[in-house]
Predict the structure.
Amino acid sequence: MIPISEPFLFKDEKKYVHECIQTGWISSQGKYIKKFEDDFSEYHNTKYCIAVSNCTVALQLALMGLDIGSGDEVICPALTFISPANMILHVGAKLVLVDVNKNDLNINVDYIESKITRKTKAIIAVHQFGSPANMKKICRIAKKHKLFVIEDNAESIGSSIGGKLTGTFGDIATYSFFGNKIISTGEGGMLIVKSKKIFNKIKLLRDHGLIDKEKYIHSRIGFNFRMTNMQAALGCGQLKNLNKILDKKKTIFENYSKFLKNNKYINILPLKTEKEYKCVTWLFTIYIKKINKKNRELLINNMKKNGIDCRRMIRPVADAYHIRNLQSVSHFDVADDFSYKSIHLPSSFNITLEQIKFIAKCLNKELKNIFEK
Ligand SMILES: *Cc1c(COP(=O)(O)O)cnc(C)c1O
């Protein structure tokens, strides 16, 4: 089976992890945690980074760091992996969903202001599938209404707007290093925090509110959301090779685009975005214009029979059982339509040109069968 997206480890990762094992520094102390945070800061040209266990807890810490909770409202795209929505609910705030754009599946900034009330505290902008959200507009709206901005950049590390990296626009940005993400530490996450004060608060929340390790002095309620030195060692190696990974992913995108160029049944996502928006490729994504749910299942099954692991796009947030009942509006035109008509194609770092050619050939054939028989 050609996998959807598997991690690729370079020599650096192996060397660094081996060192952790040889020296015994395998837990959440050791030089690689600080190095990963420092390297991450350097790459993004920011000051304050915090390594954590995964992106979901990074989002929880971001909301808690900004004192968001019961009685507050937070704006979130109607189409995203469930984490940001779940964490908004988890801290006790109200989840306010906003539909997404057709061209890049990012939050539709034209709808945001109509959802702002006196209780709104923050906007979570998810940079979707490698495409930057419209941060200029989002930050302008946030400034006008005195809201915080959290960028969930789990899927789009390395993308930029006008040369400025995503993750550096808002008050806080969060990252995931899960196995299928652009860079991976197995499980893992990171926060970029703009304010030093909030940075210090989140660092305490990460580690039991501990201010004196030797004397066991705790200053506040907290968690254990630490990353291990071994994960950070992986992260250092992956980050060192990030440009290599992004270059290869770009080639994957270009090759798929070339072989699918004449397929009239699909749109390749993102559709044209503004020139200053530099996208990266996480998973190669297509929207199948006229497919119905039954035929999409058929397509995915037939691709599987050919040894190709295609994936359905995530479902709209409002589809989740625990969210359905909360929403006064549960239908979002674009989120609903794109969710059920889109699929991702295998996009691992080590996929070969031959494999891409084969996948495109199968896809062209299957779609022809579906629409022309
Ligand atoms: C993967 C992902 C997450 C969750 O990341 P974990 O590290 O698995 O917790 C959150 N948000 C988005 C947008 C994601 O794609």
